Amino acid sequence: MSDQGGAGDPLSDSQKKEIAVWFLSNAPAGEIHYVAKDVRALLGDDAVYEAAAEEAFPEYNKAHLVSLELPDRSGDIVITTYGELDKNNYLDPRTAQVATVDHIKQTCTKLRPAADEELPSAYIEEFRSALDVELSKYVAEAYPKGVCAVYCTGGKDIEGPGADFGFAVVISATKRSPQNFCWRSIWTMEFNYELQFVDIKGKIQVDAHYFEEGNVQLDTNIDCKDSTIMQSPDDSAVSIASIIRHHESEYLSSLEESYLNLSDATFKVGRNGQFSCSAISSLLHVLLTFCLTIAEAAHNFGTGSSEETSSYPNPFSMA
User: How far apart, in Å, are the Cα atoms of 29 and each of 50, 55, 174?
Assistant: First the structure.
């Protein structure tokens, strides 16, 4: 029988695996193990499930910037393509160690010192570590359960001034059920020596999933651009961290404002659309509970609302 099969034909193992991979890969933030349990039960075939899990879990972990505790309890490692040495081994630049990861169990199983060729030069490390220190302070203040890491993405072997190099910053923070809230941001920066200029680009992504009295999900993201002058390692780190803090706190404030205004806009649309009163009531009950939940999460995670008017778009705009 071909993989495609005809109408009414049973699904092939390949088709079952493809479907299972889709469900696992699209699991809400922090909930892949719940989805995996149901997928495994529905498949009724351990071999097909294991093949699907082996494909889906690594991509899910990298996409969601999952953080895992290091075996020696020296900190957490972020699972990201920036630190990926191979499918199961990831660099932790802060501790200069390489962790072996079990993607399906989401645990670190082994740890070894990073080889010299896996690490940046002393000159680049001075810039990297200074930025890591400043961002760690920010993340500790802004996201109580957040983690961050700084990776060298270009020019890691440069021994001194005179050439360009680049970094990538990843920040991840989660709050778990029944009010799943996942904040992920990736920032890249290119240091241009000739122009003495640092070009900064960022992508912030927020996932929220409320399922206690309904099933409401949010998946929103935004791109940011900024720049600063190239200075000493410490001064560059302070400047870059300040820029990231500004963009993230401003976007978080815009999200909070959107949640608090969502109920009125939803009620207006519902009435104009001639929903029944009971339908409107049920819908608003779920959405209002969701709004209050995420507004609270935003307060808990954020650095406080900015007094400036947010320049970011409203993800719930119904214009």
Answer: 21, 17, 8
